[in-house]
Amino acid sequence: MLLLSFSLYSQKDSLQFGDRYAEDQIYASISYAQFYDQPSSISKSGFSFSLSSGFIKDFILNKKGNLAFAFGLGYGFDSFNHELKVSQVNNSIVFSSDNSITDNAFTSHNLEIPLEIRWRTSTAKKYNFWRIYTGIKFLYNISNQFKYTDTNAIPFVFKNIENYRKIQYGLTLSAGYDEFNINVFYGLTPIFENVTINGEQINTKILKFGLIFYIL
Protein backbone atom coordinates (compact mmCIF):
# COMPACT_ATOMS: atom_id res chain seq x y z
CA MET A 1 0.00 0.00 0.00
CA LEU A 2 1.38 3.38 -0.99
CA LEU A 3 0.76 6.05 1.60
CA LEU A 4 1.11 9.77 0.90
CA SER A 5 0.80 12.94 3.01
CA PHE A 6 1.86 16.52 3.38
CA SER A 7 2.83 18.91 6.25
CA LEU A 8 5.44 21.31 7.59
CA TYR A 9 7.71 21.53 10.61
CA SER A 10 9.17 24.47 12.52
CA GLN A 11 11.42 24.54 15.57
CA LYS A 12 12.34 27.68 17.46
CA ASP A 13 13.95 28.56 20.77
CA SER A 14 12.88 26.64 23.89
CA LEU A 15 12.60 27.24 27.59
CA GLN A 16 16.18 27.48 28.85
CA PHE A 17 17.54 26.49 32.28
CA GLY A 18 21.32 26.44 31.92
CA ASP A 19 22.13 23.37 29.83
CA ARG A 20 18.55 22.13 30.23
CA TYR A 21 15.70 23.22 27.98
CA ALA A 22 12.20 22.01 27.17
CA GLU A 23 10.41 21.81 23.85
CA ASP A 24 6.83 22.62 24.85
CA GLN A 25 5.03 22.71 21.53
CA ILE A 26 1.82 23.16 19.63
CA TYR A 27 1.63 20.44 16.98
CA ALA A 28 -0.39 20.04 13.78
CA SER A 29 -0.35 17.23 11.24
CA ILE A 30 -2.05 16.10 8.07
CA SER A 31 -1.90 12.47 7.00
CA TYR A 32 -3.03 10.02 4.40
CA ALA A 33 -5.10 7.41 6.23
CA GLN A 34 -6.34 3.91 5.48
CA PHE A 35 -8.19 1.07 7.16
CA TYR A 36 -6.20 -2.15 7.48
CA ASP A 37 -7.03 -5.65 8.68
CA GLN A 38 -10.31 -5.33 6.81
CA PRO A 39 -12.91 -8.13 6.41
CA SER A 40 -12.39 -10.29 3.32
CA SER A 41 -15.60 -8.97 1.73
CA ILE A 42 -14.29 -5.38 1.75
CA SER A 43 -12.02 -5.03 -1.25
CA LYS A 44 -10.65 -1.51 -0.87
CA SER A 45 -10.91 1.98 0.61
CA GLY A 46 -10.77 5.23 -1.34
CA PHE A 47 -8.75 8.37 -0.62
CA SER A 48 -8.91 9.17 3.10
CA PHE A 49 -7.18 11.69 5.32
CA SER A 50 -6.62 12.74 8.91
CA LEU A 51 -5.95 16.08 10.62
CA SER A 52 -4.80 16.69 14.18
CA SER A 53 -3.63 19.54 16.39
CA GLY A 54 -2.83 20.04 20.06
CA PHE A 55 -0.29 20.94 22.73
CA ILE A 56 2.47 18.72 24.07
CA LYS A 57 4.52 19.28 27.25
CA ASP A 58 8.21 18.34 27.39
CA PHE A 59 9.99 16.97 30.50
CA ILE A 60 13.80 16.70 30.29
CA LEU A 61 15.31 13.37 31.35
CA ASN A 62 19.02 14.28 31.23
CA LYS A 63 21.28 17.32 31.71
CA LYS A 64 22.23 17.51 28.04
CA GLY A 65 18.58 17.96 27.15
CA ASN A 66 18.55 15.57 24.20
CA LEU A 67 16.29 13.00 25.89
CA ALA A 68 12.82 13.80 27.20
CA PHE A 69 9.39 12.47 28.03
CA ALA A 70 6.34 14.35 26.75
CA PHE A 71 2.59 14.17 27.03
CA GLY A 72 -0.12 16.26 25.45
CA LEU A 73 -3.75 16.90 24.67
CA GLY A 74 -5.20 17.53 21.25
CA TYR A 75 -7.99 17.12 18.72
CA GLY A 76 -8.13 14.79 15.72
CA PHE A 77 -10.42 14.52 12.69
CA ASP A 78 -10.60 11.45 10.43
CA SER A 79 -12.39 11.15 7.09
CA PHE A 80 -12.58 7.75 5.33
CA ASN A 81 -13.96 6.85 1.92
CA HIS A 82 -14.80 3.15 2.24
CA GLU A 83 -16.99 0.23 1.18
CA LEU A 84 -18.54 -0.68 4.51
CA LYS A 85 -22.33 -0.11 4.52
CA VAL A 86 -24.19 0.67 7.72
CA SER A 87 -27.95 0.08 7.88
CA GLN A 88 -30.65 -0.35 10.48
CA VAL A 89 -32.70 -3.56 10.63
CA ASN A 90 -35.29 -4.11 13.38
CA ASN A 91 -33.77 -1.24 15.40
CA SER A 92 -30.32 -2.85 15.22
CA ILE A 93 -27.26 -1.63 13.33
CA VAL A 94 -26.12 -4.06 10.62
CA PHE A 95 -22.86 -3.93 8.65
CA SER A 96 -22.49 -5.17 5.08
CA SER A 97 -20.57 -4.59 1.84
CA ASP A 98 -22.33 -2.82 -1.04
CA ASN A 99 -20.54 -1.61 -4.19
CA SER A 100 -23.67 0.10 -5.53
CA ILE A 101 -23.82 2.89 -2.94
CA THR A 102 -22.05 6.21 -3.54
CA ASP A 103 -20.55 8.97 -1.38
CA ASN A 104 -19.91 6.39 1.31
CA ALA A 105 -18.00 8.32 3.96
CA PHE A 106 -17.12 7.85 7.60
CA THR A 107 -15.96 10.77 9.77
CA SER A 108 -14.93 10.94 13.41
CA HIS A 109 -13.88 13.60 15.92
CA ASN A 110 -11.51 12.53 18.71
CA LEU A 111 -9.66 13.81 21.72
CA GLU A 112 -5.97 12.85 21.52
CA ILE A 113 -3.57 12.11 24.38
CA PRO A 114 -0.04 11.54 23.01
CA LEU A 115 2.72 10.11 25.23
CA GLU A 116 6.25 10.23 23.78
CA ILE A 117 9.89 9.45 24.46
CA ARG A 118 11.92 12.07 22.59
CA TRP A 119 15.50 12.00 21.33
CA ARG A 120 17.06 14.90 19.40
CA THR A 121 20.46 16.35 18.51
CA SER A 122 19.37 19.89 19.38
CA THR A 123 20.77 22.27 21.98
CA ALA A 124 19.17 25.31 23.59
CA LYS A 125 20.37 27.40 20.64
CA LYS A 126 20.48 24.89 17.79
CA TYR A 127 17.19 24.78 15.91
CA ASN A 128 18.02 22.56 12.91
CA PHE A 129 18.59 19.01 14.13
CA TRP A 130 17.73 15.33 13.85
CA ARG A 131 14.92 13.99 15.97
CA ILE A 132 13.11 10.74 16.75
CA TYR A 133 9.94 10.95 18.84
CA THR A 134 8.15 7.67 19.51
CA GLY A 135 5.39 6.58 21.83
CA ILE A 136 1.70 5.83 22.09
CA LYS A 137 -1.38 7.92 21.40
CA PHE A 138 -4.76 7.40 23.07
CA LEU A 139 -7.94 8.50 21.31
CA TYR A 140 -11.34 9.19 22.86
CA ASN A 141 -14.14 9.40 20.30
CA ILE A 142 -16.34 12.49 20.67
CA SER A 143 -18.59 11.75 17.69
CA ASN A 144 -18.74 9.57 14.57
CA GLN A 145 -20.89 9.54 11.44
CA PHE A 146 -21.53 7.15 8.56
CA LYS A 147 -23.32 8.46 5.48
CA TYR A 148 -23.96 7.27 1.92
CA THR A 149 -26.38 7.55 -1.00
CA ASP A 150 -28.18 4.46 -2.28
CA THR A 151 -29.06 3.53 -5.87
CA ASN A 152 -32.32 5.50 -5.62
CA ALA A 153 -30.37 8.68 -4.72
CA ILE A 154 -31.68 8.53 -1.14
CA PRO A 155 -29.15 9.75 1.44
CA PHE A 156 -28.64 7.85 4.70
CA VAL A 157 -26.89 9.18 7.79
CA PHE A 158 -26.06 7.22 10.96
CA LYS A 159 -24.56 9.19 13.83
CA ASN A 160 -22.66 7.97 16.90
CA ILE A 161 -22.80 4.26 16.19
CA GLU A 162 -22.73 2.47 19.54
CA ASN A 163 -20.47 -0.27 18.18
CA TYR A 164 -17.76 2.27 17.38
CA ARG A 165 -15.04 1.90 20.03
CA LYS A 166 -14.90 4.97 22.27
CA ILE A 167 -11.30 4.47 23.45
CA GLN A 168 -8.59 3.50 20.99
CA TYR A 169 -4.80 3.66 20.96
CA GLY A 170 -1.87 3.12 18.65
CA LEU A 171 1.89 3.45 18.27
CA THR A 172 3.35 6.73 16.98
CA LEU A 173 6.63 7.74 15.36
CA SER A 174 7.83 11.20 14.31
CA ALA A 175 11.31 11.40 12.82
CA GLY A 176 13.35 13.58 10.51
CA TYR A 177 15.59 16.60 10.14
CA ASP A 178 14.63 20.26 10.32
CA GLU A 179 11.22 20.73 8.66
CA PHE A 180 11.16 17.29 6.99
CA ASN A 181 9.57 15.02 9.59
CA ILE A 182 7.44 11.97 8.95
CA ASN A 183 4.61 11.06 11.28
CA VAL A 184 3.14 7.54 11.54
CA PHE A 185 0.19 6.27 13.58
CA TYR A 186 -0.33 2.49 13.71
CA GLY A 187 -3.63 1.65 15.37
CA LEU A 188 -3.60 -1.34 17.71
CA THR A 189 -7.31 -1.49 18.59
CA PRO A 190 -10.16 -2.45 16.22
CA ILE A 191 -12.43 0.55 15.65
CA PHE A 192 -15.57 -1.56 16.21
CA GLU A 193 -16.72 -3.70 19.12
CA ASN A 194 -18.70 -6.93 18.72
CA VAL A 195 -19.43 -6.40 15.02
CA THR A 196 -19.52 -9.01 12.25
CA ILE A 197 -20.09 -8.99 8.49
CA ASN A 198 -21.29 -12.22 6.89
CA GLY A 199 -20.34 -13.99 10.11
CA GLU A 200 -16.77 -12.64 10.04
CA GLN A 201 -15.53 -10.50 12.92
CA ILE A 202 -14.68 -6.93 11.87
CA ASN A 203 -11.18 -6.14 13.21
CA THR A 204 -10.63 -3.01 11.11
CA LYS A 205 -7.86 -0.74 12.42
CA ILE A 206 -6.44 2.61 11.31
CA LEU A 207 -3.06 3.41 9.74
CA LYS A 208 -1.91 7.01 9.12
CA PHE A 209 1.21 8.28 7.40
CA GLY A 210 2.07 11.95 7.01
CA LEU A 211 4.21 14.84 8.17
CA ILE A 212 3.93 16.97 11.31
CA PHE A 213 4.39 20.63 12.12
CA TYR A 214 5.55 21.80 15.59
CA ILE A 215 5.27 25.41 16.82
CA LEU A 216 6.81 26.63 20.06
General description of the model:
The chain has 216 residues and is mainly β. Helices cover 0% and strands 62% of the residues. An eight-stranded antiparallel barrel has the order 3-4-5-8-9-11-12-15. Strands 1-2 form a two-stranded antiparallel ribbon. It has a two-stranded antiparallel ribbon with strand order 6-7. It is elongated, with a radius of gyration of 20 Å. The two termini are 34 Å apart.
Strand content range = over 45%
Biggest sheet, open or closed, and with what strands and sense? 8 strands, antiparallel, barrel
Order of adjacent strands in the largest pleated sheet: 3-4-5-8-9-11-12-15
Order of helices and strands: EEEEEEEEEEEEEEE
According to DSSP, the number of beta strands is 15
**Cα-atom radius of gyration:** 20 Å
Low-confidence stretches: 1-18
| Distance linking N and C termini | 34 Å
Helical content, roughly?
under 10%
What is the typical, i.e. mean, pLDDT? 84
List keywords for this structure.
216 residues; mainly beta; 15 strands
Write a compact overview of the structure shown:
With 216 residues, this protein is mainly beta. The protein has strands at 15-17, 20-22, 25-36, 49-60, 67-81, 84-89, 92-97, 102-120, 130-149, 155-159, 167-177, 180-187, 196-197, 200-201, 205-215. An 8-stranded antiparallel β-barrel has the order 3-4-5-8-9-11-12-15. A two-stranded antiparallel sheet has the order 1-2.
